[in-house]
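Supplementary Methods S3. Input chains for the assembly prediction are listed below.
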Amino acid sequence: MTTPSAPALRLLIQCPDRPGIVAAVSKFLFEHGANIVQADQYSTAFEGDGGAGRFFLRVEFETGHLDLDSAALASRFGSEVATPFAMEWRLSGDHRPRVALMASRTDHCLLELLWRWRRHELAIDIPLVISNHETLRADVEAFGIPFHVLPVMAGTKAKQEAAVRALLKDAAVDLIVLARYMQILSGEFIAEYPARIINIHHSFLPAFAGADPYGRAFERGVKIIGATAHYATQDLDEGPIIEQDVVRVSHRDDRDHLVRLGREVERSVLARAVQWHIEDRVFVHGNKTVVFR
Amino acid sequence: MTTPSAPALRLLIQCPDRPGIVAAVSKFLFEHGANIVQADQYSTAFEGDGGAGRFFLRVEFETGHLDLDSAALASRFGSEVATPFAMEWRLSGDHRPRVALMASRTDHCLLELLWRWRRHELAIDIPLVISNHETLRADVEAFGIPFHVLPVMAGTKAKQEAAVRALLKDAAVDLIVLARYMQILSGEFIAEYPARIINIHHSFLPAFAGADPYGRAFERGVKIIGATAHYATQDLDEGPIIEQDVVRVSHRDDRDHLVRLGREVERSVLARAVQWHIEDRVFVHGNKTVVFR
Amino acid sequence: MTTPSAPALRLLIQCPDRPGIVAAVSKFLFEHGANIVQADQYSTAFEGDGGAGRFFLRVEFETGHLDLDSAALASRFGSEVATPFAMEWRLSGDHRPRVALMASRTDHCLLELLWRWRRHELAIDIPLVISNHETLRADVEAFGIPFHVLPVMAGTKAKQEAAVRALLKDAAVDLIVLARYMQILSGEFIAEYPARIINIHHSFLPAFAGADPYGRAFERGVKIIGATAHYATQDLDEGPIIEQDVVRVSHRDDRDHLVRLGREVERSVLARAVQWHIEDRVFVHGNKTVVFR
Amino acid sequence: MTTPSAPALRLLIQCPDRPGIVAAVSKFLFEHGANIVQADQYSTAFEGDGGAGRFFLRVEFETGHLDLDSAALASRFGSEVATPFAMEWRLSGDHRPRVALMASRTDHCLLELLWRWRRHELAIDIPLVISNHETLRADVEAFGIPFHVLPVMAGTKAKQEAAVRALLKDAAVDLIVLARYMQILSGEFIAEYPARIINIHHSFLPAFAGADPYGRAFERGVKIIGATAHYATQDLDEGPIIEQDVVRVSHRDDRDHLVRLGREVERSVLARAVQWHIEDRVFVHGNKTVVFR
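Predicted structure tokens for the full assembly:
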């Protein structure tokens, strides 16, 4: 996945599958001076479900010779192409995503994202990190990022979540990453950010959904463990899966060692999922994802 | 895992963990002229379970300079070493394992094993292959192995299983490999061959236990699929796991394609599990395995 | 990679990169009633080489509603689209590829391809298998495929190759797969089938090019071995790489065991390369490949 | 690999292979109250080289009930067991390894080690970090570790290396880790720390030894890249390999992207190699390693 040299925009489309979509989109872009540098498409019609199918398209194009600004291009595209094809669509790439990170006590997923951000591997702004513990303050502040602690006391969960949501609203975030944030979010919270909350679960879902996956993996005697990055939904650990990866283990690995081995997988899986999301490579379709890598 | 040049025997031991086991075993072997070429040990005491732990030992030794035949060596070992340490143990390697293969209609797992057997990768005898369908007769007979078809009709399941068990008894098999045999075995059958029936399940257990794992993996939208070789137990798909492996998939892979990709993983996972079993590398402990690779 | 339900054709294009290519191609296909079911594109311009770049496009489309037969469609495309854009191109999918397999004594790569062919995983015809030894006759003939033995004696190499080439010409093959054929082909032979001879090399190229890669891998003490499928070129083991894969090894694995472990990687790497080639997913660019998976 | 609860020592042995070694060692340990918690052995005799072979043994034992202190145990072992068997041996585990890290400008390998050290995954002391650039000072000092910059100017290389070696001598380090230190060490320097300098090379050796491996991997069009941790020797990139790992790439990945993907592999490969070294799991034999994992 190379980055084009000139500033690029991305057109992200899904609609009922039918002939002519690609022709219409590429004709429109060509006539307005856009140079397509990457295009990926997929249709569920070819899952043999017989149905007409749902069509997904991601087009990345250079804007050096556009005859319109992006706002004008978008409005023209909406009326001339999107509406006739009944598209759900958006134009992306003209602003840097604002991403909030949330974590509790463990540092590995959080640090992985902060490192990649500092190394310019993640083209995002991180306006704030939110935790329910003080533990990670020094780590976060070393990156020059505001660290907010909102502890959860008995009976204060609702109030705490309201405060969290207020902070996120003020920060106008586009994406929330739960980098091992060990609190369950309310359905209301999740509904406020559809397909915009990424969670890392420390098991190879659907195996070992729920609590203590490493302990249960050890009890079951599996020979491979994994991690899963998915969009948070009302149903805990049931959201659309973005990425998974695994690591081989043996009878010699006790629960603590599984935890240690799992850290490496968790952080790289989460980092890939975040990267693909902010590059608009992930489409949600029902409870599944289409990922254009 | 290299094969020693001289004929080798294997001593397979498990017992309560306590000091002196290795010293006693190696002293005994040395004094009788055995040359240890490989030794692996493991104790559950180091899973931090606090308890005394269970000790597992696999010793492979050359017999070129033994001062006793293997029968005499075994009886001396039993009285002098095994009894004092309350060992479950056996001496192995002096006869070639007899392995029965069972399959229904799909050929990939069966062919993989037959092919490895023919190229002497699997040091076993295969007295027979049993199926509930005619489909694979030509494939099997091309290897010069008797192929028995025992179909399952409505209401004949019990009778068919009795016939299967009679064939296996006559053939005096040490191991039964279910190479995609799509019939559930009775508890009685399984109890007759404890930790001596290896099954391949076409999912990454415990995910997608039961029927149509590929269809359900497709529905869930997982990004990785796998296969699991385990010992058959009364609880379907719950037996001790011997080996697992996985392969990456994407939104583009429909159910049929998952089936195709899965074949490669199924056959290699099953082949490794069988290889390790017949090399006495697999110990069962509760519902888990210790595998000395 | 799902197979569309209706008969499909593929348009395979490479040309100098410039705006409007996708628009022109998709407009043409749409206007003639083709329904695009899969499209992949890539441009070397985004390797940051500054240059204009080379553009690659693979379009798969359903033909149910075409207003022309494929020959007419091709000639119209040639004059109206391909020529103006200076495209190298071809229309594919209207005939089943004819593939010749060549092997010497080892069976694993050959059997893998024959199995997949018989299982309809490879949509090809196999008019013949050619070997320089009798060893594999029974295996091949069991699949009902003609097996030709053309031995290489001292001083007969040129004559033997001429005979091989005559057989291949008579069989009108589209692709030649060297499934562990241990004879070096002449430059003339290779030039006759540009990017149409696939070879499997039993190492992770460029490591251990040349003879006895497993022996040298063992000597070097690598911890991972691999296999490489590439198009044969004049420079031995230097041709464009189509696919590679690896397997982990340890100090316990002697040369023979590396050979055994390598077999599994060799056959799956070769099978994937052949599959992608016959599905027209592989483009050659200089000494590299673009693979649209 | 679990850590025993009680303080443990390790006996590390290599000697000519012959019968009785394990018996003698385990008898000695048992008689002095040592409880063996892990033992691994290997003999090159079983590489089919016919020769007598070299024997390697790693024994980890609990010391709770030792009848001697470790010094006395060692001297007794030396005279009673090691000398008769002509063993090269040492007793390890009674002091915490002192490890110096060296890096130039890139942070990923260095941060990985510092971070694992801080979360107590690496049971080492890090008395200092040495660099030839200021770049990483803040990162290192944030961990509370002294950071020494010794720049290399034209013609000052020898003087700089002398200063580096003086620092290392003062710090009495047991191991030096070159975590992307981009200066070639003199043969004299390397000879001072035999099998005690670990280097990470950013390719899958022996492929792409030398400079710019990612650029050359991109030019060759490989489909997989890797990293290699090895002991530094006089011959650049030719030292005994401790660990390697790989990651899949595609035609879409330009050189910069290979560098990015490679970072993840480099840091995990180096971290594993360091972990195994400080746990005394790595034996050097000729130009190869025996790694007891």
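The first helix of chain A runs from residue 21 to 31. Chain A has eight helices and 13 strands.
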